[in-house]
Each structure stands twice: as C-alpha cells, then as structure tokens.
Design goal:
alpha+beta, 5-stranded antiparallel β-sheet
C-alpha cells in the first residue's frame, strides 16, 4: 500500500510460483492517513525495526468510520479489500509475501469467508511459526543459497498453510470460546522456559488478548484457571531443580519468589514436604 508521498526502495525481490517475496524500505514525508485498495493478491507483511506503536486500520467495506483496530508488527491484507490505515510512522523496513489467491486454494478455503473475527485477526498476527518463516524468507532472498528457488517455494507453501491454520483457529475460538491450539502452544512454551514464571499480563500480550479474555478462554480449553496452571508448572519446575541438587535459595529466585522463606512456605503448603525434605528424598546429589 502506497501513497504519492511515500518513497519505496526494494532491497531484494524474487518471483515464485505462488506470487512474490521481497524486502522493502518505505519512507513517508508525513504521518500515514490513507485509504487504498489491496492488490489482487493476499499480502502478508512482517515489519522490522523501527516498529510503530500507533498503527491502526479499518476495513472500509465492513467497518464504520470510527472503528479502527490496532495493526501489529505482522499482518495479512486480503486480496481486493479496501483498507484505511493511519500511523505516525515515517519509515519502515518490511518482509512481504504476496500470494495469488488462485494458486493457494488447496490450502485456503475455496470460498474463504472474511468474517469480522477473521478480519480483525489479520491485522495483528501473533504467531511465532509465521514470523519465523517470514524471517527465513527474508534471509533467503537477501543472501540466496543453494537451491534458492526451491527453498523459497517450500517456505512460501508452508507460510500459506500456516496462514490458513491461523484463520481457521480464529473461527474455532469464536465458536467454542476457548483458545486456539497455537495460543495454547505459546503459553506452554513460555511456561517451560527456565526464566521466572510469566504474569497473566505477559501471557495476554503474548497471545494478543486481554487478560480477562485469556483467563476465560483458557478455563474453557483446559478446565482450570490459568493462575492455577501457572502455579502448577512453577511447582513442577521447582521440583525438577531440587531433584537436580540446586540450592533452595537458587530455586526460590529462579521460580519468581522474592525470598527463600516465601518459597519454602508455598512449597510446603503444596506438597506437604519442605524443599529440603523433597530434595533429600528425590535427589542422589549431596545437599548443598
């Protein structure tokens, strides 16, 4: 999408069977406020640094003049849709893939319905698999390697499939009220990190949902509260570290407690054993 006041520099570009891929730099002389019709291709874009925090958009043919939704770092513009975008961004580097709708019908529904939930979901895609694919595509066209064309075709095909799954998951959430599988995967992946446990706000940001929506949908999906699930995973993490012989102080701070005494009280209340007793019973290492 461009206006007469933009300056676009294509840094790398390559045609593929499904459409095209390119890395571009855009610069604007003034804040963006434009209405434009997307080309006859699906357009998925990952913006690189700098990232705009003010970007918003609305689908002109579907939403009223006052409804603008946030545009995230990664978004999909459906073919032949008119969009009104605005942002205070003055320059942007992006990785863009454009898909010919006719070539990817075997992955996207032939009669793809652009529901309100799907349209809103296209403006801010929080999906690590899609983001990583776009990063890899950008690297490949900047520095082509062996079998470059084949590699791009394979990655673009996988990207189309992941986008189709993403759109399907949006409707699944709307019907069932629970979280889509990719959002549940994001939560589980974050909880297996060795870093301190996440807050509800962090997980809501990761899933691109409000805290209230996330908590309600997680209970529907897993049959328990998200807070209890985080506490359970934190306890399991503590047990593993104690069994490995880590000091109680190290385990306490690694699992997000402000003091070892607080950790000891919580652990004892949950398990019926003190951390020291648990470590003695489950570790072959000499207690520290």
């Amino acid at each position: 999408m461009e206006t007469h006041k933009s300056n676009t520099r294509i840094e790398a570009e390559q045609a593929i069977a499904l459409g095209s891929v390119r890395v571009v730099h855009n610069a604007w002389s003034e804040p963006i406020n434009m209405i434009a019709r997307a080309p006859q291709r699906h357009h998925v874009e990952l913006t690189l640094l700098p990232v705009s925090k003010t970007a918003q958009a609305r689908f002109v043919d579907y939403w009223g003049p006052h409804r603008f939704e946030r545009m995230g770092r990664m978004f999909l513009l459906p073919a032949n849709h008119t969009i009104h975008a605005r942002s205070d961004c003055r320059q942007q580097n992006s990785i863009i893939c454009s898909f010919d709708p006719a070539t990817i019908e075997r992955w996207f529904d032939r009669d793809l319905r652009w529901t309100d939930d799907r349209l809103q979901g296209t403006l801010d895609i929080a999906n690590n698999r899609i983001r990583n694919l776009l990063f890899n595509i950008g690297d490949e066209i900047r520095t082509p390697g062996f079998a470059n064309e084949t590699m791009l075709e394979l990655m673009a095909g996988q990207l189309a499939i992941e986008l189709s799954r993403h759109l399907t998951s949006i409707d699944d959430e709307s019907r069932g009220g629970g979280l889509s599988p990719w959002r549940l995967r994001l939560i589980d992946q974050r909880l297996t990190d060795e870093s301190s446990p996440p807050s509800l706000t962090e997980l809501a940001t990761l899933c691109n949902l409000s805290v209230r929506h996330l908590a309600r949908a997680f209970r529907i999906s897993r049959g328990r509260s998200l807070g209890n699930y985080i506490a359970e995973q934190r306890l399991n993490h503590a047990k593993r570290m104690l069994a490995d012989g880590m000091s109680i102080k190290s385990v306490a701070f690694s699992t997000g407690f402000s003091a070892p005494s607080n950790f000891t009280a919580a652990f004892t209340r949950a398990t019926g054993e003190t951390p020291r007793q648990y470590r003695q019973h489950h570790s072959h290492n000499k207690p520290r």
